[in-house]
Amino acid sequence: MPAARTRRRTCATASPSRQNRSVTDNGRLERLAELAITVGANVQPGQVVSLSCEPGKEPIVRALAAAAYQHGAKFVDVSYFDLHVKRARIQYAAEEDLEFTPPWIAERLLHLSEMRAARVATSGPVAPGLLSDLDPRRVGRDPLPFVPEAIQVVNERTTNWTIVPFPSPPWAALVYPGVAPDEALERLWRDVEHVCRLDEDDPLEQWRMRADALDAAAARMTDAHFDSLRFEGPGTDLTVGLLPTSRWIGARMDTVDGISHVANIPTEEVFTAPDPERVDGFVRATKPLVTGGNVVRGLSVRFEGGRAVEITAEEGGEVLAALTERDDGAKRLGELALVDREGRIGPLDRVFYDTLLDENAASHVALGAAYEVCVGDADKGRINTSAIHIDFMIGGNDVSVTGRQADGTEVPVLRDGRWQL
Amino acid sequence: MPAARTRRRTCATASPSRQNRSVTDNGRLERLAELAITVGANVQPGQVVSLSCEPGKEPIVRALAAAAYQHGAKFVDVSYFDLHVKRARIQYAAEEDLEFTPPWIAERLLHLSEMRAARVATSGPVAPGLLSDLDPRRVGRDPLPFVPEAIQVVNERTTNWTIVPFPSPPWAALVYPGVAPDEALERLWRDVEHVCRLDEDDPLEQWRMRADALDAAAARMTDAHFDSLRFEGPGTDLTVGLLPTSRWIGARMDTVDGISHVANIPTEEVFTAPDPERVDGFVRATKPLVTGGNVVRGLSVRFEGGRAVEITAEEGGEVLAALTERDDGAKRLGELALVDREGRIGPLDRVFYDTLLDENAASHVALGAAYEVCVGDADKGRINTSAIHIDFMIGGNDVSVTGRQADGTEVPVLRDGRWQL
């Protein structure tokens, strides 16, 4: 975990919106923002800082902006994406216009890369189910707010970035249905503070220790040089091939300029890029996933030769199926991640309907683009490329993970959520 | 007034936020949005549409987006600017970084220009006084959200654009202090509907008639070929020189592609670009002005040889003074506008703390950049240029306006708010 290398100024004085004032008057927002700006993005004096969010996340955005400026940011630029406007697009826009993306979205990202900016994204649904009554084929044609350059900039390692969850009333209502709004929001705040280790006396030291453990597990996985991993559990028997230079990443990433950052707050995973040509078998998602305002439940996917050849779901599967029509790589895997039971999210045994939290509760894979940082130069041309990147959870304590080396040796990796190597 | 040349689809189904649901359930938002998209910007099928707003204006933005897509927009892009984030910048950013503007703000505008996009801005303060306790010199150094390219794009006449007011609770509290929030919001909505002529059976026909009258007044002013105008009233004796080719613009503007649009909803003014070298005398503002969250009251300005040599105010004058340090043109006039008493805003005799409404209640001038459309080619090099454009109100029924022709003939222009020519 990077030490906070930045100068400290006086305490933040952000203005939480009225809706959250009752549960955030005690400095919660400021502590969450401080964690994201220091441990997460590790904002350096003089950096431009990009924040991205949806309307409804103003309280955390304003606290993040204040914290970033207090740590010496040159400029803070906020990018908003309103799912209600996306809804109007999908309702009314002409069929041929649904895939249009204005050039300035990518250009802003490329400027941020050139500038060596810091980037903070905010997680947590603010409008769950908003698109669920629309034609899923039309929903699937509109990839925004995602643009392929988001993956490119991550691969260039030019920006120190993180994602941090923000507990909003709509999200609390989704996680705690039937609970009074104030109580639901309070419970979600406590969950987020727990999984972000903000309920500890010294969250920074807690993150240093957990990041050390994850980085060590990643190093052991890389050193084991597995040729493939096999996932076995209820509804799942999936073998995922690895590339010769697949390397596993823990909590910390470094930019090309040597700025160490923790890309997810919280993070509990170690991950790599698989061989997009060698994925076979079937897998049943162990958690719902939320993509662009749409909830996919009861997802099952069958792979042959690396391709997802069958995608079914009890609910919302059509949107995912449509997204995987986007390009050749959208049906292949770009990420493989392992999550042990030592993390703080899994033991809560709660569905958060938010990939940042849910993916860190369970081992997972992602359809679509891979991160170049996960392989050596020799395999950079072999990892998957796509305009999409959609994580879904396939692990759990009842899903075993076994590594197979090139000589056929099988090595237990995870049993009952515990590391075996 | 342009006929609505666009295809009509089914009625809008925007989702007003909970805060405004009570006063907007009856379709108010949708009617205001429809007026802005048709009479105002005159959005054409296939156009990209830019919307700009602050957080807190989501209800009108979502209604505008739905209306734009229903009228055939190819894509709607929303640009948000959060004054709370600006506040954090002014509180904490290093002195030398306060004038920094990231390149993507201007680049997006230039793309919109190249694309021949439509643009809709939303007016009405959402955070009045938010910057009033900060160092006015630092506030004045940060021009955002204004960028000089905004003037350039207007001058290029490549985009059909409008500005429309949105009644929000904070604005209602400012206009109606001491009134219960729901009642204040209801009154402000009624004001806005009245001045936007939405309380008429056929608002489009009403706008056609008023625009005809304004365009006729503008034509008479242009034909009079005045060398200067003199404003006389309480605290005011100001002479503003005109350029040989100064032309007066009424309600309607045309893009280079011939799309007619009404740039302000509501509009009651006829305006031109003055001679930036020939402004002399003193003027007392007849209304407060709100600039970047800061309210300036009791403003007086003395001009010599075109330059504002003395700027004083009872409140907030330091911010305006600092903004006029921005560049050479920031102390000179770029706009001169006349407003008669036939409009709907003046008779309300109310201060709205919003330039869009207040400037249309009274004759006004603007410090800073001029619009090229106001002069012939021969004088395009003589109009004022600046990175700022700040309107302030100098007219009223007790301020007379007299034209002086090159031969010394004096002609009454406005007396008691009535046209004399």
**CATH homologous superfamily name of the largest domain in chain A?**
Thermophilic metalloprotease (M29)
> Strand sequence of the main sheet of chain A, in spatial order?
14-13-10-6-5-18-19-20
How many whole angstroms does the radius of gyration of chain A measure? 20 Å
- Cα distance, first to last residue of chain A? 23 Å
Number of strands of chain A: 20
CATH topology of the largest domain in chain A: Thermophilic metalloprotease-like
Query: What is the count of structural domains of chain A?
Result: 2
- Return the CATH architecture of the largest domain in chain A: 3-Layer(aba) Sandwich
Per DSSP, the total helix count of chain A is 12
Instruction: Indicate the proportion of strand residues of chain A.
Output: 15-25%
Please supply descriptive tags for the structure shown above.
Thermophilic metalloprotease-like; disordered N terminus; 12 helices; 20 strands; homodimer; 25% strand; 421 residues; alpha+beta; eight-stranded antiparallel beta sheet
Report on this model:
2 copies of one chain form a homodimer. Chain A has helices at 18-24, 28-40, 58-70, 83-92, 103-114, 136-141, 149-156, 169-175, 181-195, 203-224, 317-323, 355-359; strands at residues 48-53, 75-80, 118-123, 160-165, 228-233, 236-242, 252-254, 260-262, 269-272, 274-284, 289-291, 294-296, 300-304, 307-312, 333-339, 364-368, 389-393, 400-404, 410-415, 418-419. Helices cover 30% and strands 25% of the residues of chain A. The relative contact order of chain A is 0.13. Chain A folds into 2 domains: 18-204, Thermophilic metalloprotease-like, CATH 3.40.1830; 225-248 and 266-419, no CATH class. In chain A, the strands form 5 sheets. The first copy, chain A, has an 8-stranded antiparallel β-sheet. In chain A, strands 2-1-3-4 form a 4-stranded parallel β-sheet. In chain A, strands 9-15-16-17 form a 4-stranded antiparallel β-sheet. The first copy, chain A, is globular and about 55 Å long. Chain A binds chain B through residues 9, 13-15, 48, 55, 58, 61-62, 65-66, 69-70, 72-78, 80, 82, 84-85, 88-89, 91-94, 97, 100, 102-104, 107-108, 111, and chain B through 9, 13-15, 48, 55, 58, 61-62, 65-66, 69-70, 72-78, 80, 82, 84-85, 88-89, 91-94, 97, 100, 102-104, 107-108, 111.
